[in-house]
Amino acid sequence: MPCRYLIALSLAASLLAACSSGEPEWNGHDIAGIMPDLTYELTNETGETVTEAARADHPRLMFFGYTYCPDICPITLARIQAALKQLPEAQREAMRVLFVSVDPERDDPARLREYTSGFGDQVIGLTGNQKQLKALHKRFRVTYGYGEPDEDGFYLVSHSSAVFAFDRQGQARLLFNQDVTADQMAADLSRMLASAP
What we know:
Family: Belongs to the SCO1/2 family.
Domain Thioredoxin: 29-197
Signal peptide: 1-17
Keywords: Copper, Signal
Pfam families: SCO1-SenC
CATH architecture: 3-Layer(aba) Sandwich
Largest sheet: 6 strands, mixed
CATH class: Alpha Beta
């Protein structure tokens, strides 16, 4: 399912839930009960194979991208960083950001570690082989693809720009698209974390 249809479906569900419950609307899209729990098997920045259990009991944000991305990735990670800075200290320190590279050919653990270090200690670089990446993308109904290399071998990668938010139990809760500001993201995350058991 293309990302635009997922967002439209999530928005519709969010509006219906808000109308029926009397709760204020989210700035992002409420995907609780629509998207599956966080599950993955990937390689981290030190070359170790890890699963979602590695960050158990931490609320997490997950974003797909690659380190050679010229615009969406650095802008999105900077927006996430700005949002996290607005959270109360306890909430901010609990949060983890999973930056999943869909370009394992160029983004080895060392490259990921260098890239994510520019966005704060809470950002963790992950990648995997094509089988692992495709399974994760299928699970969350998003896609990625590779452009043709230029004469220098450089190529662009198309990928989802959505940021997924999961609670401490790894349950999908929110989806942020590029229209959600850092302030709005911070408000949603604080509300999500405050309401968590």
